[in-house]
Amino acid sequence: MHSKSITDAVSQRVIGAVAAVAFSLTACNSNEPSNPDIRSQVEPTASAEAHVPECPTSAEFNAGIDADDVPFYRPAKDATYEKLQEMIRSDAYDPIDCQLGRLQQMPQADWVGDWTGGPEQTRNQVRSITQAAKQSNTIPLFVGYNIPNRDVGQYSAGGAAEAKEYMAWTKGFSEGIGKDPAVVIWEPDAVSHAADLPQQAQKNRFMLLRTALGQFKAQNPNASMYLDAGNDNWLPPDRQARLLRSVDGGTGVVSGISVNVSNYGSPESSAKYGQRIAAAFGRPLDMLVDTSRSGAPVPDRQNFCNNPHARLGELRRPGFDADETVTYAFVKRPLESDGDCGPDHPPAGQPHPEFLARLLGLTHPVTS
User: Fold this and answer.
1) Distance (Å, whole) CA 68 – CA 52
2) 22-24 and 314-316 as β-strands: parallel, antiparallel, unpaired?
3) Is the pLDDT of residue 22 over 80?
4) What distances in angstroms separate CA 338 from CA 123, 200, 226, 261, 310, one per listed residue?
5) Which of 163, 189, 215, 344 has its CA 20 to 30 A from that of 20?
6) Is the pLDDT of residue 167 over 70?
7) Which one, of 233, 228, 229, 230, lies nearest residue 300 by Cα?
8) Are 34 and 91 in contact (CB under 8 A)?
9) Strands (DSSP E) along 147-275, which ranges?
């Protein structure tokens, strides 16, 4: 496990597993909807028919945190938060008001990329979040997403224009964290997509990732880094491990991996996938699993963009134990779109209320 030199109580628990106690948004049902015309849009369940529980309070939610754990930081009010507020005020979403309200309380990742700006703007934003987390006795959860040729031209296309720009941006990101504790998921899909790149482009990408991780290792001793390793419906574990070894290059910069980011695999299958990668990699790797959209009993793994059959996952106890090696978190923000992959689908990262309504159990898109 990395970052073993951390001495204060917060930073000793940056890495860890979220324990077995779980809260599920989908188990939180509102009272009778004020608009009876949309009752039929809520998918009935046996438990819902038998009993409609009260919405858990913030205190009840936070009671799941162990006394020795440190919760993730909940992002400050932003466009996503404001859209949630707008949905709660709308009569059209009355059946899921409880879930929407709970979602506002849940810690989710802060994504940082080319939209953040150049190195200085990135440093300032990351520093602002890191300091806010420190003041609230929480840990910031970041996603760095700016690799050149990001998403190989698909729905999340973009990223830095060239290697020099990317490394300057990475340096700004690193400076924003400084010596403070942070959890950082680095470049979702970048390693897995490398399998499809020409040989020289693949080597260049591996070099950039290795250099970036080396920057964090040298300058951010209390940051826990998770290089993304795709999901269990993509590359076989042994092939993914080979790609990760190519990034590491014997330097030891790959010490943790993230899996299932923005995908729909179950927590169990995703964790098993990560364990198989680690076994093939040849040394232990810490692991972070995205559970934000893992709630469907039988996941539809064919549609990766705004999957209409997906359901919100569990945010398991939002605390950290340094003795564990697997962490579960909401990495992909459930309200945000995967991309412009269907009629009226917003671009990647923009609020998509109709998709969130489906995640929470409304069987038909609704509008306010």
Assistant:
1) 33
2) antiparallel
3) no
4) 26, 29, 21, 11, 13
5) 189
6) yes
7) 233
8) yes
9) 182-186, 223-228, 256-259
Residue in this structure with the two tokens 């990647």, named with its chain if needed? 348
Question: Hey, CA dihedral for 293, 297, 299, 300, is it positive or negative?
Answer: negative
Tokens (6 digits) for 128: 């602002």
What average pLDDT does range 163-184 have in this prediction? 97
Nearest CA among 355, 365, 261, 359 for reference residue 310: 359
Take residue 364 and report the two structure tokens written for it: 């038909």
Position 315 confidence tier, pLDDT thresholds 50, 70, 90: confident
Report angle CA 141, 146, 147 to the nearest 5 degrees.
120
- Listed in sequence order, the residues at least 6 apart from 362 whose beta carbon sits closer than 8 Å to its beta carbon are 38, 41, 42, 43, 93, 95, 96
Q: What is the largest CA-CA distance in the chain?
A: 62
In angstroms, rounded to a whole number, what is the distance separating the alpha carbons of residues 205 and 245? 13
Which contiguous run of DSSP H or E holds residue 110?
strand 110-113
The pLDDT of residue 71 = 84
pLDDT above 90 for 243: yes
- Residue 72's contacts (CB-CB under 8 Å, 6 or more residues apart) are 107, 108, 138, 139, 140, 141, 183, 318, 329
Structure tokens at 224: 């826990």
In sequence order, the 6+-apart residues with CB closer than 8 A to the CB of 279 are 237
Distance of alpha carbon 207 from alpha carbon 202, whole angstroms: 9
**Residue 316: which of 21, 106, 15 has the closest Cα?**
21
Give percent of the chain above pLDDT 90.
55
pLDDT tops 90 at residue 218: yes
264 φ, ψ to 5°?
Answer: -125, 10
Distance of CA 203 to the CA centre of its chain: 27
Q: How far apart are the first and last CA of the chain?
A: 47
Helices (H), 54-196: 58-62, 79-89, 97-105, 119-135, 163-177, 190-194
The crossing angle, in degrees rounded to 10, of helices 199-219 and 237-248 is 60
The 3-state DSSP class for residue 20 equals coil
